[in-house]
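Notes continue from the previous slide.

Worked example: a multi-chain complex. Inputs as given:
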Amino acid sequence: MTHSNDNALKAENLTIGYGERTVIDNLSLNFPSGRMTAILGPNGCGKSTLLRALARLITPAKGSVRLGGDDIFSMDTRALARRLAILPQASKAPEGITVADLVRRGRTPWRGLFSAWSEADAAAVERALKEVGLTDMSERPIDQLSGGQRQRAWIALVLAQDTPCLLLDEPTTWLDLTHQIEVLSLVRERNRSQGVTVVTVLHDLNLAARFYDTLVLLGPNGMVAAGSPQDVLTEENLTTGFGLSAMVVPDPITGTPMVVPR
Amino acid sequence: MTSGMTRGLKGGLILAVALLVAIVLSLMIGQIRLSAFDLWNGLLTGKGPGALTLRVLRGPGIATAIGAGAALGASGAIFQILLRNPLAAPDIMGFTSGAGLAVVCGVLAGTTLPMPLLSAAGGLAAACAVAIMAIKRDGTQVPITLILVGLGIGFLTTAAHSFIVTRLPPEQAAEAQRWLTGSLAARDWGHAGQVFGCGAVLAVILAIQVRALGLLELGDDLATGLGLKSNRARLKLAGTGVLLAATGVAVAGPIPFIALMAGPLGMRITGATQPGGRILSAAVTGAIITVLADLAARSIVPGLQLPAGVMTGIFGAPYLLWLLSREMDAGDI
C-alpha cells in the first residue's frame, strides 16, 4: 500500500512557550510529502518542542499545524493516530513484555474497542517486524535485547501503526554508529517503499546529510536555514546555529556535505 | 506466544489451586476444628457442623475475604502499571486509610449512608489530595512524588485514626481500632454480597479500560500518539482503582499491604506481562493472601482473634523495606 495523497506537514506561524519562556517564535516550515526531513540544532533550541507540536503532544500558543491541509488540532485523536505516528525519545518498555506484544500495541488506532485481532493487524505487525529484522526474536522479552535491537523494536511499533507520516525524536541516541546507520536505513527504506513523510530530530549532522532529503537547522535565536543538505550545512550556518567553527567537505563516499570541526 | 501462554495457564492453575486450598483450610481450621469429611458432608447434605460452618460460622467471612482481597489486589495492580512503580499501591499512597477514616467518621457521626459510599468518598478525597499536592511547578506529576506525597497523606490519616480512637469510650475504641487495622471478624453474607456486587460492576468498567492501560504504560506521549486521550484515560483508570480499593476497605477495613504485594507476587507466578493478565493474577493472589491472613489471625494464638491486618503487616512491612532498598539501589528514590 502506497500513501499517494498529500501528506505534507506544515507549521504555520508557530509560537510555543513554557510559562514565560518562548521556545519557538513565529516559525513557519514545510515538511514535504513523502520526503525525509531532519531537524538539527544545538541542545535547548526547541527541536523536540517543535516535533512534539507537530504531533499535537503540546498545544502551541499561536499558529497551526496542518497535515495534508487538515488542521491537526481540530482532528479526532484517533483519526490523527491513523495518519501520523510519533516515537518519543527514550521510551521505557514495561517489565517482561515481548517484542511482539509491544509491536501489536501499535495497531491500536486501527482497532475497535471490542473488535478482534484482524488479518490486516497481523500483516502489519509481521511486516514491521520483518523491516526491523526482529522476526526471529518476536517472542523475546524486550529487556533481554541489546540496545540496538530494543530501539528497532520501538521503531517497529510505529511502523505497525502504518501511518503516512512518521515523526521520530532522536531515534539514534545511545546507539553505536553501526546501529545508528541500521536504524536510519530502515526508516529510509520505509520512506522509499511507501512514500511515508518522515520528520526526525537528529544530533549527528553527517548522518543527517547522508540519509535526509531536507534539513532544518534551528539555532539559539530561531531558524537558521532550511533546504537541501548542501544549502543548510554551510560554514556560515554552522557558526550561526551551533557557534561552531567547522569546515564542510564532500563526504568521500556519498558526496553529501560532511562537517569537520576545526 | 505459545511458551508464554503455557506458562500463563500453568500459573493460573497454580493460583486457582492455591485459592481452593486456602479456602478449604480456612473452613476447617479455627477455634473448633472441622474434618474434611464433615465439611464435604455439610456441602452435600446441607446439614451438620459442616453446613453450619459454611453457612454461618466461617463461610461469610471467607467469602468477604476473597472479595476484599481481589478488589485490593486488582486496585494495586492498576496503580503499579499506571505509575510503572511497584511501590504505587493504594495502601502505600494513603487511599485505603483515607477510605477507612471516612468510614469511621461517618459511623461515629451516626450517618445512615452506606459504608461503601463513605469508603469511596474517603478514598477519592485522599487520592485527590495526593494528586493535587504532587503537582510540580510546571504542572506535571512524577510517579515517585505521587508515592511519597501519598505516604505522607497516609501518615496524616493514620494520625487522625489514632486521635479519634482516643476520644471514644473504651468499648467503641476497641471496635474502631480493630476495624482500622483491617479485620474480617463477624462478617455476614451481606458484606460478601456487597463486596462482590460492587466488585463485579467495577470489574466490567475496568475491562473496558484495560487496553488504554496497556498504552499508558508505554508512556503518555506514545499513548497519545496511538490515539488515546491520555489525561482523561488515566483519570478514569485511577478513579476505578480507588473505587476498587474502597470496595475492599468498606467490608474489611484498611487492611494493609495486600494491594502492594498481590501484583508483583501474582505476576511472578503467572508470568503475565499484559495489563489484563497482571490485574487478574493480582486479584486472585490478593484473595489468597487475604484468606490466609484471616486464617492465621484467628488460629495462630489459641483463643485470641487478631485482626487480619496484623498478619498482612508482619509479611508486608519487610516486603516494603526490601522494595524500598531495591528502588534506592536503582536510583529511583
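Summary box: The mean pLDDT of chain B is 90. The interface with chain A takes residues 1, 3-4, 81, 84, 138, 208, 211, 214-215, 217-219, 221-222, 224-229, 267, 271, 273-274 of chain B (CB under 8 Å).
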